[in-house]
Each structure stands twice: as structure tokens, then as C-alpha cells.
Design a protein that fits this description.
Layout lengths: L1 H19 L16 H9 L4 E3 L4 E3 L5 E3 L8 H6 L33 H7 L4 H6 L1 E7 L4 E7 L4 H13 L12 E3 L20 E5 H4 L21 H9 L2 E3 L10 E4 L1 H10 L1
Antiparallel strand pairs: 1-2, 2-3, 4-5, 6-7, 7-9, 8-9
């Protein structure tokens, strides 16, 4: 009986989350004038979050507090390996479809992630993530591809809006959803002990044959400048409008990969 009640409560919560969410265009939402673009971007992206730079504290919507540590003067490799909250904003995510910036070694806007922040903002276990998942589909004229993402912070609604916008562009975009690399998967990033953002149900991988991944190229860390992009600008722009950054703009490129990071879209607009 207790398990049944818990399952019913979860179903009601999920239904409420689905009903309450309306997709936000993060490229167009009005922004305030601010002296602290990092704090403003975080608070706007995740309602209920409070960033107090005076006390150096970040308080999550559920009341959990984390130290708001500033960016560090360390090597790019060290910054990537154990990023602080401040380190996450070291590189500004380029909103223009210009892949020249990523040629600079270690220019990886979004790839720097503070583990404590992600676990507190999203989930701290595979079980917790799974309980929040729902299925969102790309429905093209020749292809239907399904992704499992979280309903937390309305990620499912944001992804649905992006996929619907892409499908409306016509059947030529269906190919990018063939041979999908997947979505939710509680795992570490290849070659590291850091959790992948796929663990939190906030990332999707498109066609693995067309995306390209720096490790598959044989490049050494910091030397992944060569990248033959095959993802079209309209597709990338649709994802970005709804808060998903693209791994194709990273020096250590992951061209099939999109992850929900609206704070970086907002930070780019505020700081750039």
C-alpha cells in the first residue's frame, strides 16, 4: 500500500509539473540591467534560486546552500577537472554561429561544471533522476525519435518546443535524428570520473554519425581545433532559443550533444 501511495503521489506531481510548464525563449526573454550578470543569469534561469555574492552563498529553491566560490587562477585542465561555481562562467558561450572561437585551446563554454551544484540543482542519484523522467519526441515526416529527460525546471517543455520548431523546418532535418546517441544515462564522462550531464536528464545526443566527438578524432586535450561540423545553424539556433547549449562550440567538440544550460545563454546576453 505504501508503495502504491508513493507511486500515485509521484504521478500527481509529474502531471502537475507537465501542466504548469510553458516553454521560455531564452534568447528573447527581457533581461534587467545588472552589475552581476552571473547571479542574475542563475536566478533568472532557475526561479527560486538566490545568489548572494556578498556572503558567497548560493541557495537552491529547496533551501540547500552551497558556497559561491569565485573563478580560480589555475590551468585550464585543473579548472575543468574540479570547477567551482565561478569557474563555470570562465568562457562566454558564443550565441553567434561562429566556430572560430572554439579553435582556442580549452575554450569550452559549458563544459566546466561544479559537481556539487549540479547534484543539488538536479539529482544526487540515478534513482532520483529516473523518478522525474518523461518522454519527449521529435516527430518528423520520416523519423520519430524519443528522448527521456527530466520534468524538473521544465526541461521537458523546453526540449519539446525546440524539437517541434526543428520538425517544422521540414523533412531535411529528420536525418539529424537518425542513430541518436540517446538522452538519460547515469554515467561518468569517458576518460574521467566526472558525472556526465546525461545523468541528470538534461542532455540529448543527436545523430552520432554526423555529430563528431573530439576523443574519436584522436586529438590530445587542448589540441582539438580541427572539427568538420555537419550540424546546420537553424537546428542549433532552435535548441539555443530554448536553453540548450551545443557541444559543437567547444574546443573539445561534441557535435551531437545539447544540454540544458539557460544560465549560460542568459549570461552571454548579459555579459556579451
Amino acid at each position: 500500500m505504501r508503495a502504491l501511495v508513493a507511486a500515485l503521489a509521484l504521478a500527481l506531481w509529474a502531471a502537475g509539473a507537465l501542466a504548469d510548464c510553458v516553454a521560455t525563449d531564452w534568447r528573447a526573454v527581457p533581461l534587467p540591467v545588472t552589475s552581476d550578470p552571473v547571479a542574475t543569469a542563475l536566478e533568472a534561469a532557475y526561479p527560486g534560486l538566490e545568489a548572494d555574492r556578498t556572503t558567497g552563498t548560493l541557495t537552491l529553491p529547496d533551501g540547500v546552500s552551497l558556497p559561491f566560490e569565485p573563478p580560480r587562477d589555475v590551468s585550464p585542465a585543473d579548472r575543468l577537472d574540479d570547477a567551482t561555481l565561478g569557474d563555470q562562467f570562465t568562457y562566454i558561450y558564443p550565441l553567434a554561429f561562429d566556430l572560430d572561437a572554439r579553435r582556442t585551446p580549452w575554450q569550452d563554454p559549458g563544459r566546466l561544471r561544479n559537481d556539487a551544484f549540479f547534484r543539488a540543482l538536479w539529482f544526487d542519484s540515478a534513482r532520483a533522476t529516473r523518478q522525474s523522467l518523461t518522454t519527449v519526441a521529435y516527430t518528423g515526416q520520416t523519423r520519430t525519435t524519443r528522448f527521456q529527460v527530466t520534468t524538473k525546471h521544465c526541461v521537458h517543455a523546453q526540449l519539446a518546443a525546440a524539437l517541434d520548431a526543428i520538425a517544422a523546418m521540414g523533412p531535411a532535418f529528420d536525418v539529424y535524428f537518425e542513430n541518436s546517441g540517446g538522452s538519460f544515462n547515469w554515467r561518468t564522462i569517458a576518460g574521467t570520473d566526472r558525472l556526465s550531464v546525461h545523468s541528470f536528464g538534461i542532455a540529448v545526443d543527436l545523430n552520432t554519425d554526423l555529430g563528431g566527438y573530439w576523443r574519436w578524432s584522436g586529438a590530445a586535450p587542448g589540441a582539438a581545433a580541427a572539427y568538420d561540423n555537419r550540424m546546420p545553424e537553424p537546428l542549433v539556433a532552435a535548441f539555443e532559443r530554448y536553453g540548450f547549449i551545443w557541444g559543437g562550440k567547444w574546443h573539445h567538440f561534441d557535435g551531437m550533444h545539447f544540454e540544458y544550460r539557460p544560465e549560460l545563454i542568459l549570461y552571454s546576453r548579459l555579459a556579451g
